[in-house]
Amino acid sequence: MHALILIDQQKGIDHPKLGVRNNPSAEAEISSLLSLWRQKSWPIFHVKHRSKQRESVFWPDQEGFEFKEAFLPLEGETTIEKSVPCAFINNSLDDELKKLGVNEIVLVGVATNNSVESTARTGGSLGYTVYVVDDACFTFAKPDYFGLARSADEVHAMSLANLHGEYATVISREQLVEKVIA
């Protein structure tokens, strides 16, 4: 059985201070998968970041902490909070997945090189079959370790390359629907 895990689809992710992002159609792809999962009554997990840093766009008790309207959990869908990038740390996600008999997880959301990559690495290490939906994830431009400016597309691509074939299968939404969950 496979579960859909939506990572950090909160209002704060749209804050301009995060910089230039890639993949402007990611939310449409996420919505498409969310609709499919709801139609099939498959398990859905909404992961919400609760920052410990007051200046964060995900600081509790402010608008950025709230889910985006398009991704509000429905009754019966599970909300998991995290305070670090990985969605498996210091919460019940792994236990909840095991209770449901889930052995495959589909990751969508933000940021590809942060919470998505961290969650995929841990999920793969825990023995889950992990799918990262490349066109249903996005990230932001940032400098590399040596200070060279990297576009959001470059950061996204490198993160996906880090994951594919070792911790996860990187796949498009269309490929996932046609080949994996058909």
Short summary:
The protein is α/β, with parallel strands linked by helices and 182 residues long. It contains 5 helices and 8 strands, in the order βαββαβαβββαβα. A hairpin with a 5-residue loop joins strand 6 and strand 7 (149-150).
Overview of this protein structure:
The chain is α/β, with parallel strands linked by helices and 182 residues long. It is 31% helix and 23% strand. The strands form 2 sheets. Strands 3-2-1-4-5-8 form a 6-stranded parallel beta sheet, sandwiched between helices. A two-stranded antiparallel sheet has the order 6-7. A hairpin with a 5-residue loop joins strand 6 and strand 7. The radius of gyration is 15 Å and the shape is globular.
Short descriptors:
182 residues, alpha/beta, six-stranded parallel β-sheet
Range of helix content: 25-40%
Number of helices: 5
Mean pLDDT: 97
SSE succession = EHEEHEHEEEHEH
Global shape: globular
Q: What Rg, in angstroms, do the CA atoms define?
A: 15 Å
Category by helix and strand content: alpha/beta
Question: What is the topological layout?
Answer:
Blueprint: E1 2-7, H1 26-40, E2 44-49, E3 78-82, H2 93-99, E4 104-110, H3 112-125, E5 129-138, E6 142-143, E7 149-150, H4 152-163, E8 169-171, H5 173-180
Parallel strand pairs: 1-2, 1-4, 2-3, 4-5, 5-8
Antiparallel strand pairs: 6-7
Helix pairs in contact: 3-4
